[in-house]
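Study this protein:
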Amino acid sequence: MLKLIIAEDEKMERETIEWLVHKHELPVKTRTAHNGEEALRLHAEDPADLLFTDIRMPFVDGIELSRLAKERSPDLQVIIYSAYGEFEYARSAMRLGITEYLLKPLEVPSFLTVMNHSIEKAIQSKLERKYQLRETLRELLYRRPALSSPGGPETSDARGERYRLALVQTKDPVFDREYECSERKIEELLEERGTYINVNERLSVIFLRDSVCLSTAIEPLGHSLQQLLTTEFNTASLIIFGRPSTIPSGIRDEFQRLEQVRELGFFAECSVVWMDGDTASGHDVASTGGYGDERRSEDIQAMLSEWYSDVDHGDYDNLEQRISAFFANRSVKPLYPSMFVKCLFAEIVRRLHEKQSLSSEAMMQAQQAVMRMEHATNIRLFVLNLIAELRSSSTSAAPSPNAGHVAVNEVLRAIQENYAEDLSLEQLAQSVYMSPSYLSYLFKKKTGQSLSKYLTSYRLEQAKELLQQTAMKVVDISARVGYSNAWYFSHLFKTQFGVTPAQYRERK
């Protein structure tokens, strides 16, 4: 919403103007000042889009107020409120580029005409300024232009001002799929605090003006952004706030630094990270060390040789300890990008399957599951579960036909305890840190039927018991076993058992 300052030393006049603004529902937020000095202070604290000012006021008159305010905000729309005898003042206002003025006593139709015209100009100026600022910041991110060079992007809103960058990464490609909606929603949340720029389908950048976004407000803003993305677009997110940087000198370097920090999202449990000095703060976030120079290839090769040796010798206890130590070591987190970790453990999974002579189909499913995982915790638990299964099967002469039984048993337990809830394959797969396709493969291999068919059968068996042992209505039994639609429940029941729930109860 546009912001209007009303500067008028007469209390009745000041209140009348504010009352007219509210009565006619003009799209502005008003603040009032009883002299020019106070109006300047209000404008310095939070710049206005429109200024409605009397000319004759104590301390600082309306002409000087307009001049000083427009020096700070060249696009400020000023409406002069003048008496007939003050026409020379009005001429001075014209020289400042002020084209709107009203004569006393105030006439409502003229007031509304001038105000609506000024509001339209303010909106247009704001849109143009916003577009110019966005293009300037976009250029800074990608091409590092010389802002002072002829023809280069330049804006008084950006040059020399301190900004705090924020990277917003989403799990799903919402920024392309919901481009206009996501942009509008995020900008509504930001209000006047920053500028939003989309980078790709899963990543956007927000430039927060450091002057209006205090450090104490960073974490609440991050959680508000996260909640918006969850409720409006049904996607999880990682939000990283950088340190204040001055345009144009520090923005590009800070962006590249945050890109490195973004890799920590693969290791950290938190969803909001903010930079404090040279480290990242949040929940379980490691220090942001550098990349290439600190990762020595000989160290990596030595580590892999130890892991491969454990696999070849079937030393699963030692392998489990090494892998647990790898993920527990906070110093490795900045050194290994997420794709490196995925490829590393996909190779470990391949070697484990080959060691136990498991099928190539199972190996491929497991590798694909690792490569699709979005968090290091998922990979750690997946691989440790696989090691536990192989350890138990290694005591028998032949490979166990029940590889994957740990995860499948956990899913069976979850179904038995929560069958009345809205369970999905995706939810169950996430609970055991597997991809839906790999869980489906293991579940069918162990039980002989698909997960969805097993869930349906289990629910209907529970419904049979309720029909036999209680006098509950069919519609209530339907809800009790996880079906909100009683007709659909009856259809499934008849398909499974050949009779409707009511017929089944009558027979029993």
Q: What stands out?
A: DSSP finds 21 helices and eleven strands in the chain.
